[in-house]
Each structure stands twice: as C-alpha cells, then as structure tokens.
Specification:
The chain has one domain: TIM Barrel, CATH 3.20.20. Strands 1-8-7-6-5-4-3-2 form an eight-stranded parallel sheet. It is built from ten helices and eight strands. It is globular. Helix content is 35%, strand content 13%.
Length: 341
C-alpha cells in the first residue's frame, strides 16, 4: 500500500505539474502515450540528432522529430530536446564539438532552424493547426560533455563553455524568450577531474559564461541516496561559489535499474529497490527544490530499452517504470503517487 505524499513546509505549498518528466529510450510508442496522460506528465526529454536532422548542409529532414513533437503535443507533453551529434560534413566524428569558425556558424544555423520549426512561432504549429500548440521553449545543449564518448575535446570544460556561448547567441537571435539549458553532467565520469562540480567550476571561469544559460543540469546517477544527495549539494555549491547560485538546476536524467543486483553494477537494485529509491529521491528533491533551485526532474527511463539492442550503460535495459513489453513495475505506482498529486 502506498502512503500518500505529505507535502511539508520544506517541500513548498505547491509543486508545478511540470516538475516531473520522463525520458524514453529513443521514442515513446503505443501504450506509452496513454500512460503519460494517466501520470499527468507534462514534459519529456528527447534527442535531436544534428547528424540525422541535417545530413548535408542546409538540407533538413524533420520526419522523425515532427513525429516525436506532434505525438507528444497531442497528449499535452512539451519536449525538451537535447541537441548533439556533429554531422560528417562538419567533422569526422559526431562527438567532436563544432567549434571551428565554419562549424560554429553551421551549428548556430541548425539551432535557429529547429527554433523556427518548433519554437513559439514555429512553422510546424502553423502547418499542423489540428495539433495542440505545445512549442519548445527550452533547448538543452549537448549531452554529458564530461564523458569523452559524448564530447571529445582537449579541454572539455572550456570547449563546452565556448559551445554554450555560441549556442545561446543563436537561440536568442531566433527567440529572445527561449531558455538555454546546459547539458546534463554525468555523476559517473571516467576521471575525478571531470566530476560534475569540478567540470562546472572550470566552465564558469570562461568570461561571461553566466550570462549565456538559464539552467544548469545534472544526471545524478548514484548507488545510494546518500551519494545522490551529495552530488546535488556539490553541484549547487559549485554554482554558488562561481556566482551562479540562483540559476535553475534541472535533473534531466536520474534513475536506477530494476534488474537483480550484480557485483560491479551498483545502479541495479531489483524491482523493490528501484521503487524504494524512486520514492526516497523524489521526496528529497521536493523537500530541497526551493533551496537548490530545482525546477525539473526527468526519470530515465520511461520504459526499458529493447533487450536485444546494445546499450552503453549497465542499467538501461531495466531502468524503466515498465518492462519493454509495457508491463508495469512496482516503481510505476510509486511514480504516480508523485506525478498525480
């Protein structure tokens, strides 16, 4: 039996319905949309792969993203896209950030093209009047740049800061009201020097970077609630020390796997363990949201990844609220107790 959440003064009298969101493995499908409505989820985070959307300079293929944005809009879910993956006509590796003179211009053009299609005055909404207008209002720049397999640069913090400045200028030129969201920093980098709080401190040394983003983001994957809390505190402290303590903090990925625990796989907790950690972490986030300026929380994943597909993480095939076959796990009811309050 689930115990209803009692909102204390520390959690605040009211929590916006936009607070809890979800991340799919690739895309939502079938029953996912009905369940998003059932859970009253209003936000979803999905990838906008530059290399797939603009396979050659100036030639855009909006087919996939039109489907994602449109289907979610019908269920009144707003998309937070994370934009990454450099195309081959810009660099020989998709993990290489677009920081050369021509590459920066191409990246800026891509961002503006996305805004002109899906933003507040986007062409997509004009040409699809039957779909509830749910424009994209925030744009997340890249994904986990403190991991080399996503962001390959000699000095990642400095290089990423430069990319943020270029991105924010392009975004503001297309929509002065849009939010620029930093990439979610992984709580499990390969080296300590790229720990999220250290990465942020180095980034914020770049001249006037604070003026070029609205929210920082974190992926606080941790084996325990104690370490989960520690990551949040460390990132907030890093922002505060560099004069960015009032910036919003978005948790754009978080979660644990429901697979049976295994040695050297600390994020696998079993079904009941996943449920327990979801409840503890969500209560902690609600309690700390005002103090740490937390505005969004996205659970990763909505539904398990296909068991036959190769993944780059140990828990992706079991971190969903549902199994791949859509059957719910105990964590689904726990999620509902927060999202439908």
């Amino acid at each position: 039996m689930l115990v209803p959440l009692v909102v204390t003064s520390g959690a605040g009298a009211s929590v916006p319905r936009t607070f809890f969101g979800a991340v799919p493995w690739g895309d939502f499908f079938g029953k996912d949309y009905q369940r998003l409505q059932e859970a009253k989820v209003r936000n979803a985070r999905t990838p906008f792969h530059w290399n797939l959307i603009e396979p050659s300079r100036g030639v855009y293929d909006w087919g996939s993203t039109d489907g994602v944005v449109g289907k979610l809009a019908i269920t009144h879910v707003r998309v937070l896209p994370f934009l990454n993956d450099t195309p081959s006509w810009v660099a020989n590796d998709r993990t290489k950030p677009p920081l050369g003179k021509k590459a920066k211009k191409a990246w800026g053009n891509f961002l503006q093209a996305c805004i002109k299609r899906y933003g507040r005055h986007g062409k997509y909404w004009r040409t699809h009047p039957d779909i509830p207008k749910t424009p994209i209002t925030a744009w997340q720049i890249w994904n986990e740049p403190n991991l080399k397999n996503y962001f390959d640069a000699k000095k990642p913090p400095r290089s990423y800061a430069k990319l943020v400045k270029v991105s924010d200028k392009a975004i503001n030129k297309a929509d002065k009201h849009a939010k620029t969201v930093l990439a979610g920093l992984s709580g499990n980098p390969e080296t300590k020097k790229n720990a999220p709080q250290r990465f942020l401190k180095k980034m914020l040394k770049v001249h006037k970077l604070k003026k070029h983003f609205n929210a920082a983001a974190l992926h606080p994957y941790a084996p325990s609630i104690k370490k989960f809390k520690k990551l949040l505190r460390q990132v907030h402290t890093a922002l505060k020390k560099k004069g960015a303590g009032k910036k919003q903090l978005w948790i754009t990925e978080m979660g644990w796997g429901s697979a049976h625990p295994e040695k050297n796989k600390p994020l696998l907790k079993g079904k009941q363990g996943q449920k327990r950690l979801l409840k503890k972490s969500f209560k902690m986030l609600l309690h700390s949201r005002k103090r740490l300026h937390i505005k969004r929380v996205y659970w990763f994943l909505w539904r398990d990844a296909n068991p036959d597909v190769k993944t780059n993480c140990t828990f992706c095939k079991s971190s969903g609220l549902f199994h791949y076959d859509f059957s719910p796990k105990p964590s689904w009811k726990a999620f509902l107790s927060f999202s439908r309050r």
